[in-house]
């Protein structure tokens, strides 16, 4: 029986994570997906948070990935997290690995006492975790104009001990400008 193992990324996972992200975001008419470079650039930045880069292993093979990195809400400078990229190897898509790895990284963020996560993605997928349109929380970003795919999740304050995040502009670290 093959088992799923969810765990924080380790140094030996760098290449397997690159392969999973590259395969998940592959565009036949383009070069290497920018999401691969984004993960590498975030690893070398202040936005990288150990323990909030999660892999899914299936039978010992890294087949899923989810990353939370540091962003902030201005003008208050409130620390928040951005979810992405999220990737599942094409040969393992459709069996719930994406849901599992996202839930694992959100659980880790909650345990670390984080209060807010933003994401740009499919509302139907992210709604299952409690994400809602970021506009409802009066959060803006370069992606606000895309409407409902720009989403936010307030992590449970009764668990995190954090107060409610302020409204404002979500500021992303420099690596995000290349995506």
Automatic annotation (TrEMBL):
Keywords for the protein's UniProt record, in alphabetical order: Acyltransferase, Transferase
Protein name: GNAT family N-acetyltransferase
Source species of the chain: Micromonospora echinofusca
UniProt xrefs under InterPro entries: Acyl_CoA_acyltransferase, Bact_Acetyltransf, GNAT_dom
PANTHER family assigned to the protein according to its UniProt record, in alphabetical order: ACETYLTRANSFERASE, AMINOALKYLPHOSPHONATE N-ACETYLTRANSFERASE-RELATED-RELATED
PROSITE patterns for the chain: GNAT (PS51186)
Residue ranges of domain N-acetyltransferase in the record: 4-160
Leader sequence segment: none
């Amino acid at each position: 029986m093959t088992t799923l193992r969810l765990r924080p990324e380790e140094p030996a996972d760098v290449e397997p994570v690159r392969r999973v992200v590259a395969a998940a975001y592959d565009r036949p008419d383009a070069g290497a997906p920018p999401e691969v470079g984004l993960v590498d650039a975030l690893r070398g930045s202040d936005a990288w948070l150990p323990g909030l880069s999660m892999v899914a292993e299936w039978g010992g093979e890294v087949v899923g990935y989810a990353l939370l990195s540091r962003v902030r809400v201005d003008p208050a400078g409130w620390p928040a997290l951005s979810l992405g990229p999220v990737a599942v190897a094409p040969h393992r898509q459709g069996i719930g690995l994406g849901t599992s790895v996202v839930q694992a990284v959100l659980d880790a963020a909650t345990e670390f006492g984080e209060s807010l996560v933003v994401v740009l993605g499919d509302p139907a997928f992210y709604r299952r975790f409690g994400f809602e349109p970021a506009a409802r929380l009066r959060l803006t970003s370069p992606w606000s104009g895309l409407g409902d795919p720009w989403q936010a999740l307030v992590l449970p304050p009764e668990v995190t001990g954090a107060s409610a995040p302020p409204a404002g502009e979500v500021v992303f670290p420099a690596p995000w400008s290349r995506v």
